[in-house]
Amino acid sequence: MSPTPNPYVATQLRQLIYYHLDNDFVQNALFLAGRLHGQEPRNPDAAHLLALCHLRLGRLKAAYDYSREKGFRGQHMGCAYVFAQACLGLGRFPEGITALDRARGHWGGRNHWNKHSETARRHLPDAAAVNCLLGKLWRAHGDVHKAIACYAEALKLNPFMWDAFLDLCETGAVIRPTNVFKMSPEMSALLSASSAVPDSPPANALNAASNGVFTPTQDLFNPGRPENVQRNAGGLFAKFNAIATNGNGQQVLDVETPVGNGGAYDEDVMMGEAGGAPMNRAPSAEPPHAPARRSRQVPSMTDSGVEVPRMKSITTRSRVRSGTDSSDHAEPVKSSMVGAQKRTVSGNMAHASTSAGNPASQPRRSHRLMQSVQDHIRPSGGRSMTSGKSAETQEREKRELRRARLPTAAKSSRAGTSAVGRVISGNRKPIEPAERDMKETRSQSALAGNITSAAPPKQQQSAAAIEVAKEREALQSLLDLFCKLGNAYYLLSRYSSESAWEEFNSLPAAQRETPWVLAQMGRAQYEQARYSDAADLFEKVKRIAPSRMEDMEVYSTVLWHLKGETDLAYLAHELIESDRLSPQAWCAIGNSFSLQREHDQAVKCFRRATQLDPKFAYAFTLQGHEHVANEEFDKALLAYRSAIAADSRHYNGWYGLGRVYEKIGKYEVAEKHYKNAHHINPRNPVLLVCIGVVLERMRKPQAALLQYNEACRLDSRSALARFKKARVLMNLRKTRMALEELEILKDLAPDEANVHFMLGKLYKMMRDKTSAIRHFTIALNLDPKAAQYIKEAMESLEDDEDDEYDDDDGA
Questions:
Q1: Angle at CA 12, nearest 5°, toward 9 and 15?
Q2: Which of 442, 440, 399, 395 is nearest to 417 (CA)?
Q3: Which helix (H) or strand (E) holds 606?
Q4: Residue 24: what are its φ and ψ, rounded to 5°?
Q5: What is the 3-state secondary structure (H, E, C) of 770-802?
Q6: Which of 67, 99, 476, 755 has its C-alpha lying 20 to 30 A from 39's C-alpha?
Q7: d(CA 388, CA 405)
Q8: Compositionally biased, Basic and acidic residues: which spans (predicted)?
C-alpha cells in the first residue's frame, strides 16, 4: 500500500514553479509542473500550471491538451484562460470563445486595476483581460461587431488596456479617444479604496522587503512595529507566527494558507471559484486558498484539558509559504512574540508576562526555540541573549528600564554585554565597543522617536488625503498622455496622416523620441508619400533601437521608393542578422531584390515572410506586386486575395486587385476594387486617380474629372492627379483650364518631359506655334528616347486636324 502523499509537497512545488516562472526559467518551471501534475493528477491547479508553462514556451498544442478538460467546460478560470489563448494561436476560435463564456462566473465583475505592484499581483485575469482576449477571438473568427463590443467593455473597465485600443482602431470602429482615456467613477472609487485599506503596503514597503528582516536598521523589539517582521515572510521570526495571542489572552490562529504566487490582497480565493464558492478539490490537495491572512479564534484548551502553549513550535502550516509570499503584508497580530518582549537598556531581551493575571507563567515556546536557534548560530566564544545573566541581573535591568533616561540608557548599554545585534543581523564578527555604542544609541533614539512621533488621527487623515490627491493627479497626467497617443494612433488608423503626425509631434520630447512614436510618425509621412522625411524618421528609430523589427517593412518600402539600393541592402543585412525568423527582415530582402529587378528572387523572399507569419498581409501584397511585374496575373490575384483574407482593411490588397483587373481589361471590376480601397483609405489621392483612369477608359470623362478634382483637393502637390486632370480637360476641349493645371504642374515637376510635351500639344490646339515648338524642344532635350514621338508632333504643327477646338471655358 502506497503511503498517503503529503499535501504540502504540492505547495512547495507551486512555490518553485512560480519562482522559476517569475525568473523566466520556463523549462525549469515546466519540469516542476510535471512533478506537480504527477503528484496531483486530478487537481485543476496542477493542470493549469502545466498548460501555462507550455504556453509560455510557445507549445500551443500541448497547452491546449492539458487545459482542455477543465478549461473548455469553464470549471477552472486558469485553465479556461490558457485554453482560450492556445485556441487563438491554433485557429480554434469558437472553442476559445465557448470556454471563456462558460467561465464567466469566475471573471465577470472582477476588476484588478490598481491592485498590481511589486509586492502584490494577480495570477488570474480580471474582466478587462478576458474581454480583450474575447475581442481577439471574435475578430479572428470574423465577427467584428462582437469584437468591438468586447474591446469596448475591456477599455471601459481598464482604459490602459492599450492592446484592446489598438485592435479596436484596426477594426475601423469610430472612436472618441477622449471618452476612452478618462477618469471613470469606478477608477476614482478604486483609487480611494486602495488608499484607505489599513493593511496596504506603505510607500517604503519595497525598501523594507529588499532590506530583509535581519538588518540593524529594523528594530525587531519595538512593540509598536510588529508588522515589520510579518511582512518579511522569508525571515526567521515569521516562521514562529502561526499561533499568537490576542489582547484578551486568547489564542489566535493566523490562517496563512499558501496561494500560489498571489499577494496578501488577492481576491482569487481559488482559481476555480465561481461567485465565491470554491470548487471541489482532490482529497490530497492543500487546504482552500484564503483571500488574505485572517485571524480566527481557537479554543485555548485542548481536548485533554491541558492549556495549549502560547506559541507553537515551527509547524508545517507556518513553514508553508507561497512563491512570492514574502511580499504579503498581513494585518499585524495584536500580541506577537516580538510584541511581548521588552528591550533592556543594554539591548538584551527581558521577558514580559504573557498574561496580566499570571506573572509567573513561563516564556513562550517560540521564544525558547528562538534562543536555541540563536545558540547554534552565534559564534564560538560569544554570548547568548540571556544565558549569561542571572535572574537577579535580569530583574535589576527591568527596574533600570522603567526609570532610566536616554543618557543613562546609553551609559548602561556600554556596560552591558549584548549579543542581540550580532545574532539577529547575522554578523559573526565581534563588534568593537565604540561601534556597538553608536549602534545602540541610534537604536534607542529610534525607539524614543517611535514612541513620541505618533501623529494624531486628523493629521494621518490629512496625509492620506494628500497622498490620494497626488495619486489622482499622477493618474490624470497618465490618462492625458494616453489620450494624446490614442488620438494620434486613431487618426493614423483612419489615414488622417497629417493630423496624426501633428498629434505625435505635439507629445513631450521624452515620449516623442521613443522608437514606437518615431515609427508611427514615419508611417504617417510614408502614407503622404513624403519618403525622404519618412526615411529620416526610420533612420532615427534604427539608431535608438537597432534590434527593432516592427515597421521595418515600411522602412524598406520607403527606401525602395527612394531608389536607395545601397541603403536598402544594408538594412536587409542588419535585419536578417538580428532575427532570421522575422517576416520584416524577409520583406526587406525581397524589396532589395525587387529594386534590382530580380523579381523571382523577390517573390521567394516574400513567400518566406508569409510562411513565417500567415497573417502578415503586407508580405502578400508585395508578393502580388512582383507577380504583376512578371505579368503573372493569376498568381498576383491569389496573392492579393490572401492579403485581404489576412486583413480585410488592408487597402493595398484591394488596390492590387483593381490594378490586375485594370490590366486585363475588366474595368468595372477594377473600379469596384479601387472603390473598396478608397472606402478604407479615403484620403489617398492615388486611389482617386486610379478610379479616374478606369472611368476614362470606360468613356466617362466627366466622372473621371470629379475624381481628379477630389485628388487635387486632398493633395495640391500631387503631380499625377494634376497631369490626369489636365489631360481630361484637353479631351473636353477646356483648354484654358487645362493650361492652368499644366502651368502649376510645370512648377511642380519642371524636369518632367511629359509635362512639356502636353504643353506643346495644348499650344498647338490653341494655334500658338511658337510656344508649342519651344515646349516640344524642351521635352526632346529632357527625354531623347522619345524623340520619334516628339518629332512627329512637331511636324504635324501645320496640319489642320486639331485646329478645331472650343475656346469656351464654360462647362
A1: 155
A2: 440
A3: helix 599-612
A4: 60, 30
A5: HHHHHHHHHHHHHCHHHHHHHHHHHHHHHCCCC
A6: 99
A7: 25
A8: 429-442
Q: 241 and 254 in contact (C-beta within 8 Å)?
A: yes
Query: Could you give all domains of the chain from N- to C-terminal order, each with its CATH number?
Result: 7-196 (1.25.40.10), 211-355+362-448 (no CATH)
Q: How far apart are CA 67 and CA 86, in angstroms?
A: 9
Q: Are 805 and 735 in contact (CB under 8 A)?
A: yes
According to DSSP, the β-strands at 349-351 and 243-245 are unpaired
Q: Which residues pair with 310 in a beta bridge?
A: none
Indicate the pTM of the whole model: 0.67
Please report the pLDDT score of residue 161 as a whole number: 93
Q: How far apart are CA 664 and CA 208, in angstroms?
A: 74
How many Cβ atoms sit within 10 Å of the Cβ of residue 579?
12
- The residue among 722, 677, 668 whose CA lies nearest residue 698 is 668
Cell output for 642: 490572401
Query: Taking Cα atoms as reference points, which of 327, 254, 330, 329 lies closest to residue 19?
Result: 327
Grid cell of 56 as nine digits: 509560455
Q: Measure the CA–CA gap between 102 and 96, rounded to whole angstroms.
A: 10
DSSP summary character for residue 252: E
Chain CA centroid to CA 317, Å = 37
Residue 287 phi/psi, 5° resolution?
A: -60, 160
For cell 513567400, the residue is 607
> String of b and e for 185-222 (b: at least 16 CB within 10 Å)?
eebeebbeebbeeeebbeeebeebbeeebbeeebbbbb
Contact in structure between 669 and 661 (CB atoms under 8 Å):
yes
Pairwise CA distance, residues 443 & 343, whole Å: 11
Strands 251-255 and 294-297: antiparallel
Contact assessment for residue 332 and residue 229, using Cβ atoms and an 8 Å cutoff: no
| Count of alpha carbons within 13 angstroms of residue 541, beta-carbon side | 24
Strands of the 251-255 sheet, one edge to the other: 243-245, 251-255, 294-297
Q: Determine contact, residues 416/385, Cβ cutoff 8 Å.
A: no
Q: Characterize the bridge pairing of strands 349-351 and 341-343.
A: antiparallel
Q: Report residue 712 as a C-alpha cell.
A: 487635387
CB 736 within 8 A of CB 809: yes
CA distance 460 to 463: 5
DSSP character at residue 514: S
Show Cβ contacts of residue 354 under 8 Å, excluding neighbours closer than 6 positions. 245, 249, 310, 340, 361, 363, 364
Give the Cα-Cα-Cα angle 239, 244, 248 (nearest 5 degrees).
170
Contacts of 30 (CB under 8 A, 6+ apart): 50, 53, 54, 57
Which helix or strand (DSSP H or E) is residue 412 part of?
helix 406-415
Query: What pLDDT shows up at residue 392?
Result: 54
Q: Give one word for 270, left, alpha or beta, with left for phi > 0 and alpha for psi -120 to 50.
A: beta
3-state secondary structure string across 6-40: CHHHHHHHHHHHHHHHHCCCHHHHHHHHHHHHHHC
pLDDT at 435: 46
Burial of residue 311, with CB atoms counted within 10 A of its CB: 0-12 exposed, 13-18 middle, 19 or more buried: buried
pLDDT of residue 395: 59
**How confident is the model at residue 461, as a pLDDT?**
73
Tens digits of per-residue pLDDT, 375-412? 444 444 444 444 444 555 555 555 555 554 444 444 44
| Positions of the chain with pLDDT lower than 50, given as ranges | 1, 198-389, 404-453, 801-811
Helices assigned H by DSSP within 681-796: 685-697, 701-714, 719-731, 735-748, 753-765, 769-782, 787-795
Measure the CA–CA gap between 517 and 537, rounded to whole angstroms.
Answer: 10
For residues 229, 263, 65, 76, the Cα torsion angle rounded to the nearest 10 degrees is 120
pLDDT of residue 393: 54
| Residue in this structure with the C-alpha cell 485628388, named with its chain if needed | 711
Q: Phi then psi for 255, rounded to 5 degrees? A: -70, 115
Radius of gyration of the chain (CA): 38
